[in-house]
Fold this sequence. Notes:
This is Nitrogen fixation protein NifB. Keywords: Iron, Iron-sulfur, Metal-binding, S-adenosyl-L-methionine. This protein is an alpha/beta fold. The protein has a domain at 27-104. It has 15 helices and 13 strands. The chain has helices at residues 3-25, 31-37, 124-127, 158-165, 176-188, 204-222, 241-248, 262-268, 270-274, 278-293, 309-322, 347-364, 368-373, 381-390, 394-404; strands at 28-29, 65-67, 73-75, 84-89, 92-97, 100-104, 129-130, 135-139, 194-198, 229-232, 250-254, 298-304, 325-330. A seven-stranded mixed sheet has the order 7-8-9-10-11-12-13. It has a four-stranded mixed sheet with strand order 1-4-5-6. Helix 7 links the parallel strand 10 and strand 11. Helix 1 runs antiparallel to helix 14 (381-390) and helix 12 crosses helix 14. The two termini are 18 Å apart. The mean pLDDT is 92.
Amino acid sequence: MPDTQIGLKDRLWKELALKAELMTDGVDITHEALEYLAPGVRTQEQVHTLFEMDFEVHDGEMPAYFRLPLGLVVPFRWNRESRHRIELDGDRTIVVKRDEELAEAHFPERPGYYGLKTSDGASMATIGSLGSDRQFFVAYSNECSYKDKGEDCLFCNINFTKDTYGEKSGIFWKTARQIGETYAEVHRQGLVDHVNITGGVIPERRELEYYLDVAESIQRHSGVEDFNGTAVVAAPLDLRNLDRFREAGYRTAGLNLEFWDKGIYNAICPGKARDSGGWDHWLRAIEYAVGVFGHGNVRSNFVAGIEPKKSLLTGIQYLADKGAVGTASVWCPNPGSDLEGHRAPEPGWYLDLAHHIAVIWKRAGFTWANLYDSNASVDSLQHDIWRIEAETLPVFGELALSAAE
């Protein structure tokens, strides 16, 4: 292996370590940098869909994400108490820690369709947001039936986000037509390769009918039969309903178990524990879904940092053995959730976890298509590790091109 390639990997591992810190601790931003970036005007802004992922609520627009110099993507999680901050240096935005510049931060331009409206006047930016890797993310509502029973998941602030930001921030029930029209425009602009449809937990029959309507609307408005969609759903009591999602045109499915340890699951997710058949039925539904969608085409996410790492990895290994992709998100103690004010584990904890997950994925025979298609985003630490090891990040192609010249 050429020295330049070895050096590139070494620099990528260092950049990944910085990313882990920025995801775990969040990042502050100076007024000057925020004014220069002008999120919502010049650069892409956050869209409050499911959750408030910043460390505290705020007025005004915040950036959606930024890229580090070698291309790793960092979701922007504002935390005024963070050790890291974004500063303006001339016409550069940089990541600073204790007045030391660590890296330049590159913020994406605002997507063209964000300024457009659907036929009924809704802002397309609020219907579906654009991820860093050509992924179209739709949260059709912040309605979660667990709220009325006082059984929200303790880590979740879906209902709080709706109550705090409301319709003025685009938090409302999206119609199938709005989604179809917006996807058609995003597709026309050549911006999308994958669609993720999700929302709060609603009654099973209503959920099924809605997802079928959305798939039909996407196909009708865009003319795209296979839109590479992931249906993120609750475990249906009638498992045959999963066949209906596949028949409607969804290529993959997401059934998020959240925790592998049953005791922790029951305590943290009281609504899920009592409805939809509980933990055991959710697991049966995931296994059934693999039979419907195929090996590597079903994803189940875990909220990483609340249960022990050993337990979480046991779950991800079990799912991999069954053909399901287990993922782990860096837990943000969301404002408004019952766990607000708690702390996530150290960045090194997450890096170690991600390395183990990447190994499990490789041994299970998952392809990059599986990992891309079944997930709402590929900005996780484990996705980065996969691409660094496989040398498939764009920066490797740039290095090869430079060497050829």
